[in-house]
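Might you be able to review the protein record set out just below?
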Amino acid sequence: MKRVLVLAAILALAAPAHAFDWGEMLKGVVSKPGGQAPAGATGVDALSTTDINAALKEALTRGADAAVAQLGVKDGFFGNAQLKIPLPKNLQKAEKAMRMFGMGQQADDLVLAMNRAAEAAVPEAQTLFVDAVKQMTLEDAKGILTGGQTSATDFFRRKTETQLTERFLPIVKTTTDKVGLAQQYNRYAGMATQFNLIDKSQSNVEQYVTQEAMDRLYTLIGEKEAAIRANPVQAGSALLKKVFGAVTGK
């Protein structure tokens, strides 16, 4: 059964489901022993579970590495309109009035500080992601490869979110504390939270930025992995080409 799950997983990772006849590809696999491929086998039959598992881990590692490299640099967030972290919703509502009263520069300074804080914090994720991949089990692999388009994001979030929050918060706080508007927001938002006027996720700037940064990071990892799913042979790895090439026949 494990053999079946792994092969089904590799098909899901290699390309959209409609591109393959799953029943035909898996025909006869159940009766084969797991572990190493039989001597003289070719194509998918020549793949060992070791190769398949290693290819999946490499695909996830590459996705995580690419996401961290993209976001963990100057303008990784701030210079990308789709990834840029905006003011908390409560400040967005007041932003127009702030600019009318000459506080526009303070708002701009806070947005810049929030995004710079996120860019500085992201590299902290690298080690946690590597550890998560190393500890990945066959059950994890099954969940990633059969769980839909956000499965990689879900896997990394489940394994790393708590530790990542702990690492991000102090880095973000150090940067945002330097901005006066952030300190003002924290004072008023903290009081508003007590009366349930503001969601707890926005009770202070550093918590808000940390959550926004992580959400974007996890989502980007999912997008990077999706790209590998769509075209694994172009990923540049001999292992990925061997495993996914066997499935696609390329």
Observations:
- The chain has eleven helices and no strands.
- Confidence is low (pLDDT under 50) at residues 1-33.
- The chain has one domain: 57-232.
